[in-house]
Amino acid sequence: MHASTSSPRPLADSADPAGAPVGGHRPACLPAWDRLQALAATPQPPLRDRLATADAARSAALRFDAAGLRLDATRQAVDLPIWQALLALAREADVAGQADALRRGEAVNATEGRAALHPALRGDDDPAAPWGAAISAAVRDERERFLAAAERVRSGAWRGHRGLPIRTVVNLGIGGSDLGPRMATTALAALATPAVAVRYVPNPDAWTLHDTLRDLNPHDTLFVVQSKSFTTPETRLMADTARRWLADAGLEPDAQGTHLVAVTARPDLARAQGFDPAHTFVFWDWVGGRYSVWSAIGFPLAVAIGAAAFRQLLAGARAMDEHFWHAPPERNLPLALALLSVWNRDFLRCPTQLVAVYAERLRHFVPYLQQLAMESNGKRVHRDGTVCAVGTEAIVWGGIGLEGQHAYFQLLHQGRHRVPVDFIGIDTEDTPLPLAERHHRLVRDNLLAQAQALALGRDEAQTRAQLRAEGLDAATAQTLAPHRTFPGNVPSNLLWLPRLDPHALGALMAAYEHKIFCEAAIWDIHAYDQWGVELGKTLLRTVARDDGAPG
Ligand SMILES: O=P(O)(O)OC[C@H]1O[C@H](O)[C@H](O)[C@@H](O)[C@@H]1O
């Protein structure tokens, strides 16, 4: 990432000496923050005017390419001076230095005294990796173990106690031990083997597990118990029930070994709970749960799509890492996502962020992103403990865009909230359905039409003229016009994947990881702890004791 000054500097090559403390700034005290506030207070032309003028420089500045992904941010409510001030904010907040600290394995998760080295899970082929050869070797060894096991399940070589090949893998886990692999398994369903069904059960509500298990044969079912901590009560209960279900089918505990896999950062606890170390895959405390899909937590995904496709997912993420670390700031796609988001959140004061995916197979993307963004950056204090004077994370919501258009999009067009939108689309689809190309074009055109409608809107005079052209008399046109007027000026990003394959999905996920990192770096907050969630976990123990129920 090169600064936009005369001395370009990639993001990975911070001039800060190794180990120098980073961050600790108050974003609202930075000169660029003042400048952005002044710009936000200056009346700005509506997006419809900006888009009507062919401003080639603005248009070029707000388009980005990275790892095969394209971002068109020309519908954001920014001009070149605002964009320059946002880039200055990234410089003044030393996003580059903070990115270096993360890669060097510093304890950037300071409240838990840990590193946050999820990029190492996909970057172990780099001999000069700043996190060191020992970490790369551990990542590689464990990946080879769990991918080989996934291939054995997939090919039918992994047998249950009675010698049957596995037909169904049931993932038991919640939060980061569910959302990432579940999202990716659905997104890459086109690659899934028909030989093994992969199901995800995140919810200890008895119905959910019952509904999953009732048609399954225990003798060809493999449970994958995923839990970084191996203490999450929801997951422990589901694992207990799975064991009972196996036992009820005649598989006593000593016959359950090949029907149970554990994935955890606490193999000692898994062993104490009776899991066979040969069927236990590990990751490390420097991988946050919501960043863990790249580790052995991806085991069920690897069963579904195969080891080669899983490696492609890692390669896509790695390509985005390389872009993020080495592209100059003004061309840096994840940094752009972050800066535009900070502009919308803190200066245009939009409290929420809609993510609209235009691909049914991405239907679990928003819940995955909600955890990634809101568990990371839903914070109220700066790193020095003082209360934030800035907005921090927006509420992320959304889902399948085409369905939203026929439901809640009305509020976007005419409600009282201004909701920035990330539209996520797919360039090329190759489904073998008759008329598939027409289906795909309709989906893509809808995305474009919505982005355009939200940006441009239609003012009252245009609406009256339109109604008159439709043959209404002047009085009726006058009465109806306010109801059929659309303020527009809704900012959006268009993020295009070349196709929905593992490489592009990996790049998309890593782009959002880095975006979230940059936001936290600018807001000067800790992105890798989640003490709010911990409070709920602690109180659960108290409530369960008071209730007389087993904790
Ligand atoms: O993987 P586990 O240790 O079972 O934790 C599962 C989930 O627990 C909590 O909700 C945390 O906030 C999440 O980040 C984590 O992913």
UniProtKB/TrEMBL annotation:
Task: Report one GO cellular component.
Answer: cytosol
Instruction: Please name the pathway.
Output: Carbohydrate biosynthesis; gluconeogenesis; Carbohydrate degradation; glycolysis; D-glyceraldehyde 3-phosphate and glycerone phosphate from D-glucose: step 2/4
Q: Which CDD domains match?
A: SIS_PGI_1, SIS_PGI_2
Query: Where is this protein found?
Result: Cytoplasm
- GO BP, one annotated term: glucose 6-phosphate metabolic process
Q: Give the chief site where it resides.
A: cytoplasm
- Name of this chain's protein: Glucose-6-phosphate isomerase
